Structures are given as C-alpha cells and as structure tokens.
Amino acid sequence: MFNAHLSAKDEMVEKFLDYAAKGDLEKISAMISHSTTLINERGEQGWTALMFAARNGHYEVAKILISNGCDKSLVNKSGQTAYDIAKFWGYKHIAKLFINGGDSNLHNLLPCTGVGDQEIYFNREFLNRMSEKRTNSEWLAAKQSSPETVFIVFYNLNLLVTSGPDKETASQPNVKLCKLNASSVEALLKKIDTTVVFLGVEKEVKKSSSSPTADEDGLVAWFALNTDEDPTECLKSIDANSFYIKRPMPDLLFLNEDEAGVTAHARSVLAWHSRYKFCPTCGSETRVDEGGHKRTCLREDCKSLKGVHNTCYPRVDPVVIMLVLHPDGNQCLLGRKKIFPPGMFSCLAGFIEPGETIEEAVRREVLEESGVRVGPVQYVSCQPWPMPSSLMIGCHSVALSTDIKVDENEIEEARWFTRQQVVDALLKAKQAVFTMPPRQAVAHNLVKHWIGMNANL
Ligand SMILES: NC(=O)c1ccc[n+]([C@@H]2O[C@H](COP(=O)([O-])OP(=O)(O)OC[C@H]3O[C@@H](n4cnc5c(N)ncnc54)[C@H](O)[C@@H]3O)[C@@H](O)[C@H]2O)c1
Ligand SMILES: [Mg+2]
Ligand SMILES: [Mg+2]
Ligand SMILES: [Mg+2]
Ligand SMILES: [Zn+2]
Q: According to the record, where are the ANK repeats (predicted)?
C-alpha cells in the first residue's frame, strides 16, 4: 500500500517534469493548481521543472513556476541552478526572469552582466524602507505599540534567533529570526540604553480583518533593537529554542534569504550606533533621530549641525573583491588568509581608499597582496556585508603579469588555479585541491560566474 502510494507520486512528478521539458503550459498550470508541492520536486540528476523549462527555453512555463513560488536556488547534481542553465543555453530572456523579479523589458536596456541580485545573499529587500516615515515620530510611536509590528532583537549586536528541531543533525542548521511583538518587547523599549531602528514595512500589505482605526494603514512595520545588557529578562513570551548568535560568521549565513537581507540592514545600522555614540566632530553627546538613521550632536555650535555632515549618518565601507583571470583565460588567481578554514581559497579583497576609483582599488589591492599587475576591470555584482558594514563590490579583472609575490602580512598564500580545479572545488568533487567560500559569499558568485560564462558544466 505504502509503495503503491509512493510510485503514484513518482509517476506524477515524472509527468510534471516531462510537461515542463516539453513546454506544456496548460498541463503545468493544471497540475500546480492541483498540487503546489510539485514545483520543487526533482527528477534524475536533481533536475527540477524550472531547470527543464530553462534548458529548453520555455519562457511561459518558467514564469508560472516562478510566480507560484518555486525555489530558484535549488541546484542539480552538477551544481547548476535553473538560472545557470538558462544562461548557458543562451536563453537570456529566461535568465532575466531571475533578476529583480523578472522585469525583463527594463533589463533588456542593459547589457547582461550575468549575476541576478536575487542570487546574492544579504541582498534581498523584502521590506520597503519608507525613509519618508523616519521623521514622522507620531507614526513611528504608533507603530511601536501596534500588535502587528515585528521586532527583532540584538544583544551586543548578536542576533536573537530560534532553531528548528533538526538543528543538531542538519549540515546547515535551521536558524530563523526570533520575531517578537510589541508586548514582548515593552519593557526593553522603555530602557534608556536600548537603540531602536525603524527598518521599514512589509512590501506585501496584509488585509486586516478588523475595521481600520485612524493610525491603522495596514502596513506591518519592522524595528530592530540592540542593547549592551542581556535583555532576556525584559522579554516576554520568547520561544524556548531561542538563542543569540555569538559568531556572526558563519552563523548569520544560515538564515533564509529574506531574513538575511533584513539582518544585514539592521546589524549594520546598529553597529554604527554602537561605534559612534559620541559626535565624531566634537566629541559631545548625541541624540538618536530619524527612526535610528541619524545621530545629532547636542552641542549647539557644533560644525556637524551646519550643512550636510556625513558623520551624522550610518557609514558604509566600500570594499573591492575581485577574481583575477590569467591572460591565458584558463586560470584564476585565488588567495588565502591565515584566518580562513584550512584548504579554503577565495578572491582577493581590500578596502577602497579615499580618492580612488573601483578600478584603481582593484589594481592596487591585487598588486599589494599578490604582486600581480592587473589591466581591464569589469564590475559584476555587489553584496552588503554586515560585519560590520561593508559593501563588497565584485569585479572580474585580467592580469598583465603572472608571477606571484604575496604580502605575508595580509595573505598566507596565493595561487593560480585551472578552470578544472575550480570546477572540482565548486562541485566539491573528491579530487578537489581546495575548497570554495560558501555560496552566500560574493566570492563564490564571482567564481561561479566565470565558470558559467563559457564552460559546459
Ligand atoms: N564577502 C566575501 O566574500 C569576502 C571575502 C573576503 C573579504 N571580505 C571582507 O572584505 C573586507 C576587506 O578585506 P581585507 O581585510 O582583505 O581588506 P584590505 O586588504 O584592505 O586589508 C585590511 C587592512 O586594511 C586596513 N583598512 C583600511 N581601510 C579600512 C577600513 N575602512 N576598515 C577596516 N580596515 C581598514 C586595516 O589595516 C586592515 O587590517 C573585510 O572586512 C572582509 O571581511 C569579504
Ligand atoms: Mg585584502
Ligand atoms: Mg590589502
Ligand atoms: Mg587595503
Ligand atoms: Zn559635535
């Protein structure tokens, strides 16, 4: 009986995948409306319906699978996502469905750089930041006491999360934001040293069942709170499985994509507050303004109060991170810092200095760290990195020289790796000679993008 049930299900999955491969939109729509769980089922070699649609150029089928919420990040046994497959087989219009929610008309105006924003961890914005509300203190106060509002809590910048029951056994722990409501954080909000940051409102507006009152606009607001003292005692009705993430790296990488995006925003702004408590211009006390997105000096004659002073706003440090390609086109330069896990090599990276362009910073950092001279530089994609507040600007570049001389203060080792060695590392093959940074790091995307540009994985 059990086996018969299983095989009926297998048969249905097989049919579904077959219709996706053939582009039968009608059958696919009918099957999804009957059973939505089919959309992420896999067949041979780990291929999903979306991958089959992407392989055979069936735009409408890919579109309906995506609009029904299929998981675009799944990979097959060769390590390819449906996006990689669409790009490899030249179906650019399908590849563009994966970029910024698929507004393909707008993206046709730009050259295809190849990496969709959606693929980059910490990039996902599921909140509308609504910066115009930051100066509306009445609205912010009403939202802070609204039962719909979501609060996330940090203790010394360590995020409060909960874990699923499979935490101990899963290779990637199941970590979720601990989302609290106004009554749970009431006491914490009243504490004088709690920093409060308004993060935005959910883009998806919920229809309220009760009749709206004057301050009810149907918008669900999110706030982040940070305190230097253990807030556990102040919090009411928190999940028994909740705990504070002590090591941002790698633990913040275990959140889902939406929650990672909110966390990147929250943690970077809160880290700025904890490091810039006093006015950087005159050293006086400051006041938190604009929903936690500004600090204003309390000294009346302070220079920071005249004109636009960037010290009053959260800081972002731009960092270049680059994959350097060998002039033979078949190798790339990767390096390792002493602090990396054993065997791991990554792209070289460095802070942009004042008065420097992205291209100049790439050439200078590569020369400093590896002794390799770099010519052309091309921007590929970027990633907010909330440890504490960098913007990683990912580039591809081409070397003009190939001899390596590492700066031992910064890099333990740098090496040229062949395309095959990189493919082996990406696929975690037995013969791999090094390990890659995790898929959540922009370095991973830069390497994968290079391989995907012209290799048949
Ligand atoms: N997302 C990724 O895949 C990835 C990969 C590698 C590095 N990173 C991040 O990139 C950042 C920069 O890389 P790096 O450390 O190789 O840079 P780097 O090569 O410029 O060297 C770092 C040194 O530069 C100095 N420095 C200059 N400006 C600085 C600033 N604004 N903040 C801090 N130090 C500054 C410090 O002395 C520091 O020790 C690091 O924070 C690292 O966490 C991310
Ligand atoms: Mg560096
Ligand atoms: Mg450097
Ligand atoms: Mg540097
Ligand atoms: Zn001041």
A: 45-77
> Atom 29 (ligand 1): residue with closest C-alpha?
351
Q: Is the pLDDT of residue 456 over 50?
A: no
**Would you identify the CATH topology of the domain 127-206+215-276?**
Nucleoside Triphosphate Pyrophosphohydrolase (3.90.79)
Residue owning tokens 């009053």: 312
pLDDT in tens, 206-242: 665 555 554 578 999 999 999 999 999 889 988 888 9
Amino acid 213: pLDDT: 53
If 0-12 CB within 10 Å is exposed, 13-18 middle and 19+ buried, where does residue 154 land?
buried
- Mutate which of 315, 316, 351 for ligand 1? The one with the most ligand atoms within 8 Å of its CB, which is 351
Q: Are strands 242-244 and 195-202 parallel, antiparallel or unpaired?
A: unpaired
Domains of the chain by residue range: 8-104, 127-206+215-276, 317-452
Cα of 293 from ligand 5 centre, angstroms: 17
Beta bridge partners of 408: none
Closest ligand (CA of 280): 5
Q: Are 347 and 419 in contact (CB under 8 A)?
A: no
ipTM score of the complex?
0.95
Supply the pLDDT for residue 443: 96
Contact 27, 35 (CB under 8 A): no
Query: Would the pLDDT of 100 be above 60?
Result: no
What number does the ligand 1 atom closest to the CA of 365 have? 19
- pTM of the full predicted structure? 0.80
Cα(257) to ligand 2 centroid in Å equals 26
Q: Place 77 in a pLDDT band, splitting at 50, 70 and 90.
A: confident
Q: If you take atom 33 of ligand 1, which residue's CA is the nearest one?
A: 351
Q: Name residues contacting ligand 1 (CB within 6 A).
A: 317, 319, 321, 346, 349-351, 365, 385, 387, 390, 392, 410, 437, 441-443
Instruction: List, in order, residues 6 or more apart from 39 with CB less than 8 Å away.
Output: 32, 48, 49, 50, 65, 68, 69, 70, 71
Name the pLDDT band for 205 (thresholds 50, 70, 90): confident
**Fold match, 8-104 / 317-452:** no
Centroid of chain to Cα 441: 8
CA 350 – ligand 1 centroid, Å: 5
pLDDT, residue 108, reads: 52
* Alpha carbon separation from 75 to 253, 426, 427 (Å, rounded): 18, 12, 11
Looking at the CA of 275, which ligand is closest?
1
Domain 317-452: assigned CATH number: 3.90.79.10
Query: Candidates 1.25.40.20, 1.20.120.450, 2.60.120.1440, 1.10.3720.10; correct CATH number of 8-104?
Result: 1.25.40.20
Measured between alpha carbons, how far is 421 from 47 in angstroms, rounded to an integer?
Answer: 24
